[in-house]
Amino acid sequence: MSKPKISAYGSWISPITPSLISQSSKTLGQIYLDGNTIYWTESIPSESGRIAIMKCDEHNTRSLITPNPFNVRTTVHEYGGGAYTVSGGTIYFSNYTDQQIYKHIPGTDPQRLTNTPKFRYCDYIVDKNRNSLLSVTEDHSADGSEPIHTISLIDLDSGLTRSIISGDDFYSNPRLDRSGTRLTWLSWNHPNMPWDGTQLWVATIDIDG
């Protein structure tokens, strides 16, 4: 054993480096079920911590779904959340770099669905009756002012974004019933935080949204 060496404070060399620590740090989240398949998000320390979608099928086979450099993360409400959904094996997700929605059929490259640079999206629900994606949408078009939050329908073919619920400062958790005729969501307004004064709404929704 070598003898200990005394060094000045801050000058000693440690075998425990920042990269060594970060490589062992992995976060899991956003679990989603689609049929018999489980999906979740997982950070990849060896790829600068980007967040990817993983899946485990009914045969307990695990696989990485989201290819590099895509990073599944939304910045709606700044802290994000609800960055993807899955329906029939097709994934819709927010890409961190441009905050746009991408459609991803595993085995192919993700394809950008929206082309709205000033918009951010989260909290997705696939609405098969209207061939659309329900989303909480954050509009940053008015520079220098607070973004406008709405609940929107995004056409799954064209990517056209259409607001269907607006007027409150913040929205979250849009959900459809099984018939696709009733929509529920949460909303709140300044100066409340969501745990101070959230409201639960239910509305009927017709076939054109």
Characterise this structure:
- The chain is mostly beta strands.
- The protein has two helices and 15 strands.
- It has helices spanning 18-23, 194-197, and strands spanning 28-34, 37-44, 50-56, 62-64, 84-87, 90-94, 101-104, 111-112, 119-127, 132-139, 148-155, 161-165, 170-176, 182-188, 199-204.
- A hairpin with a 4-residue loop joins β9 and β10 (132-139).
- The chain is globular.
Q: In short, what is this structure?
A:
With 209 residues, the chain is mainly beta. The protein has two helices and 15 strands.
Keywords:
mainly beta, globular
List the helices and strands and how they pair.
Elements: H1 18-23, E1 28-34, E2 37-44, E3 50-56, E4 62-64, E5 84-87, E6 90-94, E7 101-104, E8 111-112, E9 119-127, E10 132-139, E11 148-155, E12 161-165, E13 170-176, E14 182-188, H2 194-197, E15 199-204
Antiparallel strand pairs: 1-2, 2-3, 3-4, 5-6, 6-7, 7-8, 9-10, 10-11, 11-12, 13-14, 14-15
